[in-house]
Amino acid sequence: MPKTSNLPEDFVRTGRTGRSGAHASAPPTPSHPAALIRSPGGITDKEAPLANSFPQGPPRRRPAPAGVALLGVLALAVAACDGASVTECVCTEEFRSVTVEVVDPSGAPVEGLSVVVTRLQDGLVLRSRENGGSGTYMVLDDRARFDVAASGERVRFVAADGVHSVSADFVMATDLCRCHIHKLLGPDRLVFPPS
Predict the structure, then answer these.
(1) Which of the four, 61, 102, 108, 190, has the lowest number of CB atoms within 10 Å?
(2) pTM greater than 0.85
(3) Are 17 and 10 in contact (CB under 8 A)?
(4) Which of 58-62, 130-134, 170-174 has the lowest mean pLDDT?
(5) CB-based contacts of 136: which residues, under 8 Å, 6+ apart?
(6) What is the model's pLDDT at position 159?
């Protein structure tokens, strides 16, 4: 390609000036030999009319904002429900448990009992702990939220020391979103050993 006298040498090679990548002050026209140069960021004979319209080069597409991408993901998640009714569920990060206090006839806490909690409907053991507790014993916690119904589930709590035992039935439930467990019915305190 013949060198032209009115364009800097680096523009003829790359389509850009040596000054931080900005185009030369006079953009090439389709009739000018420099308009046929193809290089990264340069222009071609098809792009030359656009280069005249946009002195800094043709406009570039901006990436979609992060919020648009997040909305797209949420739309896909809702579509994945296959038309099922969607309840807005927002669970808190707290971890809940239901406890019962076990005391002796004088009202002092009874420590070191073994505990078994069983679902009465089918005999499934929901919780078992050997030699635990300091007078306050856990019936169930949020780990059992998928094992009880939102309408309520009868469970039996049994605490024993190998000689004596005490038991009580509780009705435990979870919320519709299955975030947390709570007690519908059951005692707050048991006396051990029972009289």
Answers:
(1) 61
(2) no
(3) yes
(4) 58-62
(5) 99, 100, 101, 102, 109
(6) 95
